[in-house]
Amino acid sequence: MLPHTVHSSERVGQGSIPEYLKRALRFNLMDFEFALSQMVQLCFAPQSVFRASKHRKLTKNHWSRDDPAFVVLQILFLMCATLAYLFAFSAPLGQIIKFIVWEVLVHYLLFGMSIATLTWYLSNKYLLTRGLSHSTKQEVEWLHAFDIHCNAFFPLFLMLYVVQYMLLPILLTSSFLPRVLSNALYAVSFSYYFYITFVGFLELPILGKQEYFLYPVGLIVVCFVLSIIFPFNATIWTLSTYFPVRAL
């Protein structure tokens, strides 16, 4: 058997958040091409992305990514999308930095870490399966829970930042069909978010009853139906929290 050379990325295991953060500052160690390919796969075949976590568990003894390239690219894309909205709504120059900081640090990182912490806690508290009595106890890594959130966030980003931006002249009108289209866009985006979250935790053999992560989809469907009955435009409501938006 050939000797196996242990690279720096393979020494990153469970609980290796400090090492992960260090690598986020070393762009020469990141595989951006692979991260981009995973982003494409998340839109069409998310299962293939999460199967890679099984390979990492077998070869490196951890589920989570040790390459922060995926997160770095998401932050760059989010900054570009935020700038596009700021220019579209003629935001004052002094608010540009404020909006970017809010979207990246609060909306993406803080909210993302909060969701990851919640799913990590619930998974380890209620969804862990009982293994053999002599087997080593395994738990879901927090960093992998954050990975799952980031994976689920990317298609949502494409639909609610990119597609919505291109459809703004239509979605900002107050007539019936644009309102249904706007609400359907949000319903599909968040439903797919929870679906990818479900797929991500489904790939972990140490968990059971992962279908619980799909339960919020039922609530989303109910809200979508109510939005058709009662006049509500998700695009106008969301953007009005940032900009002085009025229905056309």
> Span from first to last CA?
69 Å
The helix content, as a percent range, equals 55-70%
Q: Give the topology string: H per helix, E per strand.
A: HHHHHHHHHH
Low-confidence stretches: 1-15
Structural class: mainly alpha
Number of strands: 0
Biggest beta-sheet profile: none
Oligomeric composition of the shown chains:
single chain
- Global morphology: globular
Query: Beta fraction of the residues?
Result: under 5%
- Return the average pLDDT rounded to an integer: 86
Q: State the domain count.
A: 1
Count of helical regions: 10
| Cα radius of gyration in angstroms | 20 Å
Membrane topology: Multi-pass membrane protein
Keywords: Membrane, Transmembrane, Transmembrane helix
InterPro entries: UNC-50 (IPR007881)
Family: Belongs to the unc-50 family.
Describe this structure in words.
The chain crosses the membrane at residues 69-88, 100-122, 152-172, 184-207, 213-239. Belongs to the unc-50 family. This protein has one domain. The protein has 248 residues and is mainly alpha-helical. It is built from ten helices and no strands. Mean pLDDT is 86; it is low at 1-15. The protein has helices spanning 17-23, 32-44, 46-60, 69-88, 93-127, 142-166, 168-171, 176-202, 215-229, 234-240. The termini are far apart.
